Amino acid sequence: MTLNAAITGVGMSDIGRKTNRPAMIHLAEAARRALECAGLTRADIDGISTYPGKADNSPGMSPLGTGEVRNALGLKTRWHSAVPDGPSQMAPIQVAAMAVATGQARHILCFRALTESSSQTATQRASIPGAGRARLGGWYSYLVPAKAMSASNWAGWMAQRYFHEFGMTREHLGLVATGQRAFAQQNPSAVMRTPLTMDDYLGARMISSPLGLFDCDVPIDGACVVIVSAADAAKDCAQAPLTIAAMGAALGSQETWDQRPDLTTMGAHDSAADMWARTDLKPADVDVLGLYDGFSIFVPFWLEAMGFCGHGEAKDFIADGNIGPGGRFPVNTGGGQLSGGRLHGFGLLHEVCTQLWGQAGGRQIDGAKVGACGMGGGFIAGSMLLRRD
Amino acid sequence: MRPLPELTPENTAFWTGGAEGKLMIAFCADCSHAIHPPQLICPKCWSQAIEFKPVTGTGAVYTFTVNHQPWMPDMPVPFALAVVDLDGAPGARVTAEVVNADPESVVIGQTMKIGFLNIDDIWFPQWEPAQ
Ligand SMILES: [Zn+2]
């Protein structure tokens, strides 16, 4: 079974740290590049989709909503959506796929724009939920007031438990970080391109044990646009359509980071299981992977969730060289968020599409036809299989 | 500098029980399910007969992390954050800072006991080794 939806274009702005460029300027640049990629004009765009919508829950996290982007770019959309709750950062892509498959729109501009780097100041750090508010509600309120303020703390809990149960070490996570840096050195648009050795990795300061500086992704300013098109409309685009073969979405445990019964698994496991149940494709068919790496520990979790190895086996799978340059299942070939910058999953999907179109330059995976993408950490997750026909 | 939780009908007992030295956990009066974070409806049987009961205030470390990054100005580091499986409340965990112990000494499985830090109208749970 295949959805009647495809990705037809992707575009990324020039991303960087402390660019002091407004989010809309980044977004406009990404949109122009995505339209050029797809061979479309802005008149073809009749839908707009984003995650999570305009939000002030942490500085620079989501400065743009659908309405102002529609206004700024002069789009004549007839369908729009902004999804804060849903299949993670992948929500706007999945919702758009369902919209085009049901005839609500033909070509949907899905976007993510951030100014987390410029917005970070001495008293305002990116990605602290609720920072600056007098009183917190919801699930944050059981973590942030306890001084568990950052996702690095929450991911640290998962890593510590996983290390305890399965004997993973920091060297295994170091292979994730150094492998993705090696890919980033081949990617002109990655923000971190200097060589990273295992000694550099192990010598870096600790953030939240067992996670150190290079286990954490990099806040950036930038934007990424992915165009999702109806299957019949996709045939007229400049690139070969990347058909969405299957998707999975899950909220398989309580909506918070400390209560999932087994914290050596994530919502990823529920999401990926659903995805595989909806396709004849198998993990062995996959040529290139984009796996959410807000923290390095999410990569082994996603590998296990997606079935590339069994539960508890990711450390050996990684140590065997499967995921880095030259590996059988290359992961985050653009450098990922650890070296490429935190575009909240959109950058990972951008890279998978670039690989499937054979446009990844020196880091190109020969003959890549099937890509898998998993976004989200903790309780949120979205999974997708893309196939170049 | 520490952000405070807002008090609501479902969480007030949890955040203020420390005034009497008690860790108050929500339970379903009909099916005995422990509910944390607390809520007004039992997620297992939809009963609205929710009662807060003091638990022993002990438990075993399920996992932890030692935080080294000062997320806010003047935040003293390092400190340990422990996720503790509660005795007497199966399936419920309380996450809190570890006090009265070397942060690097925390290990998975060790027994902890609760204490409280009062700021304004909130009594924050804090874990310390039970010896
Ligand atoms: Zn009940």
TrEMBL record, chain A:
<dbReference type="GO" id="GO:0003988">
    <property type="term" value="F:acetyl-CoA C-acyltransferase activity"/>
</dbReference>
<dbReference type="InterPro" id="IPR055140">
    <property type="entry name" value="Thiolase_C_2"/>
</dbReference>
<feature type="domain" description="Thiolase C-terminal">
    <location>
        <begin position="254"/>
        <end position="381"/>
    </location>
</feature>
<dbReference type="InterPro" id="IPR002155">
    <property type="entry name" value="Thiolase"/>
</dbReference>
<dbReference type="Pfam" id="PF22691">
    <property type="entry name" value="Thiolase_C_1"/>
</dbReference>
<dbReference type="InterPro" id="IPR016039">
    <property type="entry name" value="Thiolase-like"/>
</dbReference>
<protein>
    <submittedName>
        <fullName>DitF protein</fullName>
    </submittedName>
</protein>
Automatic annotation (TrEMBL), chain B:
<protein>
    <submittedName>
        <fullName>DNA-binding protein</fullName>
    </submittedName>
</protein>
<keyword id="KW-0238">DNA-binding</keyword>
<dbReference type="InterPro" id="IPR012340">
    <property type="entry name" value="NA-bd_OB-fold"/>
</dbReference>
<dbReference type="Pfam" id="PF01796">
    <property type="entry name" value="OB_ChsH2_C"/>
</dbReference>
<dbReference type="InterPro" id="IPR022002">
    <property type="entry name" value="ChsH2_Znr"/>
</dbReference>
<feature type="domain" description="ChsH2 C-terminal OB-fold">
    <location>
        <begin position="54"/>
        <end position="116"/>
    </location>
</feature>
<dbReference type="InterPro" id="IPR052513">
    <property type="entry name" value="Thioester_dehydratase-like"/>
</dbReference>
<dbReference type="Pfam" id="PF12172">
    <property type="entry name" value="zf-ChsH2"/>
</dbReference>
<feature type="domain" description="ChsH2 rubredoxin-like zinc ribbon">
    <location>
        <begin position="15"/>
        <end position="51"/>
    </location>
</feature>
<dbReference type="GO" id="GO:0003677">
    <property type="term" value="F:DNA binding"/>
</dbReference>
<dbReference type="InterPro" id="IPR002878">
    <property type="entry name" value="ChsH2_C"/>
</dbReference>
